[in-house]
Every structure is written in structure tokens, then in C-alpha cells.
Amino acid sequence: MSWLLAVLIGHLLNAVSFVLDKVLLTKSIQNAYAFTFFIGLLGLAALGLAPFGATFLGIPGFNVIAFDFTIPTAGSLLLNLIVGALFTLALLCFFLAMRGQEATRLVPFVGGSVPVFTFVFEWLFLDQRLSITQLVAFGVLVIGTILITLDLDKKAEPDKPAQGAKGWVLALLAGLFFALSFGLTKIAFEQQNFYNAFIWMRLGSFLLPLLFLLSAKHRIAIYQAFSLFREKAGFLYLVAQGFGGAGFIFINYAISIASVSIVNALQGVQYAFLLLMAIIGSLKYPKLLKESMSRRSLALKVFAVMVIGFGLYLIAQSQVYA
After folding, report:
1. Of 118, 177, 178, 193, which sees the most CB atoms within 10 A?
2. Closest C-alpha to 147, from 286, 309, 25
3. How many angstroms from the chain centroid is the CA of residue 192?
4. How many domains, in total, are found in the chain?
5. Which residue, 51, 21, 82, is CA-closest to 233?
């Protein structure tokens, strides 16, 4: 399977997971620490999908019976755990920022900053250079991502000085941690086989949220959130994490064989899928998704999809391989 097709499938699956997570975060789990804890916990479910994803993707040297699972060297193990921990930390910063900052401004900021930070990381530490066409495609995709996440219908409310500063700092940290996680993921895949590195990364994503249990406040929130699994929302949460875990496998596979900055720049594709789902879903559940848009806002998002489509065309033409 080509890396570009893997990215598209991954973002489609992530879009489904995002919609379900949005409903759950709004209606069921209000605490960002509790939500991040369960994402880290159920992220281990992705391990069960890894063999099937690896087989479907046709990863060289993968054997369904002998998974080639080994304990890596101390350096590689530490790298894998750091990658997983950074990704979970980025999620936590993002969720915390969403609680104290206007999503109208935060989502475009994070969506645009991640590929830029990743590009700098790739330039400095991976010694990879993009061609002129690839650089243009990168810029086009970042612009498309920012445009599609803008909300022209909602006026941003002025932030309280302390809350506003904290929200932007958290958003900046989220973008930086996401970029570091993806950049180090590329290095990990260059040192180890896909399946082995993927497993140990997920372990890192699981171990970090365990630290939340040291806080009595977070322990209570996490304990209360467990009641979710005794309700119908519990099944929805498991489904959401299943889609997210599968999407994560596809995205990681793409990172393992392609330019990590280009893969991250394709984040706008996920928003395009989200737009399509929102339009379809709002026809039947307008109050659930809350995606009512004016003609001006819809026109901007359609234009953004066209921009992203042009970026995809440039990428397909250039065939960016690491």
C-alpha cells in the first residue's frame, strides 16, 4: 500500500473517531485528565489491531504467526516510551487548551503549527530536504488546514488575561509536543521494525497517564468517568477508540516510509472528511454535531477543500518518499 493512500485512510478513520470523541467530551467526560487517561488506557487496544493492519498494509518482513516482538536496546526502548508519552502529553495540553480558549482560534493555530514544527525538526535532525514542488505542496496544505478550521460565524470572545495566556501557551505546547512525537516516531521506525516500535510507543502512551492517579483530584475524576462504561456511551467510547487506533496505525505506517512533515501537513484532509460528515450528520442530528454554517463559512470551507485537493495533487505528482 502506498503511504499516501495509508494517510487518507488513516485520516478518514480519525475523523470518525474525532466526531465520536467530540460528543463524548461534550456530554460525558468533562475532565481533560480523565479523558486523556482513557485514551492512553484504551490506546493499548491498538496493539490488537496492529497485526491485521500490518498484514493489510503489506509491511515487509511481517509474519502473522511470529510477530517478531523483541525487547529493544535501552536507547531504543527509551526513545519509544518518550514518543508515546509526548503524544499523550500533547493530547492533554490540547484538551486543556480547549477548555480555556476559543476553539475558533485554537484549532487553526494547532493545526497549522504542528506541520511547521515538524518541518523544522525534520530539517534539523533528520537531514531531509524537500524539493521545490514538495515545499509548495507543504505550504498549500498548511494554508488549506488553517482555512478549513476557521469559523467565520462565531465571534471570538475576549479572553481573560490569565486564562487567555494560559490557553495559548497550552496550544503552543500541544503543537510542539505533537511535532516532537511525530519526528521522533520517524527516527524510531528507522531504527526498528514497524510492529516492534509501534508496540513500545503505545506502552509509553499508557504509562504517562498513570501519573494522573497520583493526584487525588484526578483520581476522583477518573473514577467517576468509569461510570461511563456502565452506560450506552461506554460502547460509543470503545468504538471511537477503535477507529482512532486503526487510524493511528495507518498514519504511523505512512510516517515510517514518507516525509514526516508532508504526512503532518496532510492533516487538513481529516478536516475535509469532518466537514463532509458534519454536513451529512447535521441533516439528521443538527443539535448533536452543532455544525450550523452560514453560506460564507461554508464557501470558505469548500474553498479550503479545493486548496487541500490541489496540495494532494502536488504530493501525488512528486511522490515524496523518505
Report:
1. 118
2. 309
3. 22
4. 1
5. 21
Least confident of 60-64, 107-111, 256-260: 60-64
Q: What is the pLDDT of residue 61?
A: 43
Report d(CA 107, CA 269) in Å as an integer.
14
* Comparison of pLDDT for 231 and 244, the residue scoring more: 244
Decide if pLDDT at 224 tops 60: yes
Per-residue pLDDT tens over the stretch 163-199: 567 778 898 999 999 999 999 999 999 988 888 888 8
Looking at residue 241, its pLDDT comes to: 75
Q: Flag whether 301 is in a domain.
A: no
The pLDDT assigned to 27 comes to 58
Taking Cα atoms as reference points, which of 11, 14, 2, 56 lies closest to residue 315?
2
Q: Which three cell numbers stand for residue 198?
A: 509501534
Say if 317 falls within a structural domain.
Answer: no
Find where cell 502506498 sits. 2
- Over 70: is that where the pLDDT of 104 sits? no
**Rg (Cα) of the chain, in Å, rounded?**
19
Residues 6+ apart with CB under 8 A from 322: 128, 186, 257, 258, 259, 260
Q: Is residue 320 part of a domain?
A: no
List the domain range (segments joined by +) for residue 7. Answer: 3-126+157-258
How many whole angstroms from its chain centre is CA 70? 27
Neighbours of 306 (CB within 10 A): 13
Domain contains 41? yes
Q: Extract long-range pairs of 188-193: CB within 8 Å, 24+ residues apart.
A: 188/76, 188/79, 188/80, 188/83, 189/252, 189/255, 189/256, 191/76, 191/79, 192/72, 192/76, 192/80, 193/59, 193/61, 193/62, 193/68
